[in-house]
Amino acid sequence: MFENLAAMASAIKQAKEIKNNVKRIREDMANSSFEGFANDNKTKATVSGDLRVISIAISPDAGSAAGELAAAAVNAAMDNAKSTLQQRIREAAGGLDLPDLF
């Protein structure tokens, strides 16, 4: 009976550690930036790790589809940020896949 209590206490402690690690990772990610490019790097978007657009740069020779290219670059930058966040949380959780955290 007491073995089960010890196992539960250990699992609760580990869950709290994972939660604290995820919180630290999210805070760190908010201070990071990620870039995405479109149209042979003629359009560049930069987003923060908490998925806020920081900047968009469009080359004058990007053509008439600049809006679509900007959207593609923003999506690429956000994908980079999400991928990094998922990887860091997976590592903090000891390899567990925690899909509901994203």
Describe this structure in words.
The structure is a single chain. By secondary structure, the protein is of the alpha+beta class. Helices cover 55% and strands 18% of the residues. The chain has two helices and three strands, in the order αβββα. It has helices spanning 2-30, 66-92; strands at residues 33-38, 43-48, 53-58. The protein has a three-stranded antiparallel beta sheet with strand order 1-2-3. Strand 1 and strand 2 form a beta hairpin. Helix 1 (2-30) packs antiparallel against helix 2. The chain is rod-shaped, with a radius of gyration of 19 Å. The mean pLDDT is 84.
Strand fraction band?
A: 15-25%
Tally of contiguous helical segments: 2
Number of strands: 3
The sequence of SSEs as H and E is HEEEH
Unreliable spans are none
Q: For the report, how would you describe the main beta sheet?
A: 3 strands, antiparallel
User: Rg from C-alpha positions?
Assistant: 19 Å
Percent of residues in helices comes to 40-55%
Query: What would the average pLDDT be, to the nearest integer?
Result: 84
Structural class: alpha+beta
Strand order of the largest sheet: 1-2-3
Cα distance spanning the termini: 37 Å
So what's the oligomer here? single chain
| Shape field | rod-shaped
Task: Summarize the entry for a quick read.
The chain is an alpha+beta fold and 102 residues long. It has helices at residues 2-30, 66-92; strands at residues 33-38, 43-48, 53-58. The longest helix has 29 residues, at 2-30.
What's the layout of helices and strands?
Elements: H1 2-30, E1 33-38, E2 43-48, E3 53-58, H2 66-92
Antiparallel strand pairs: 1-2, 2-3
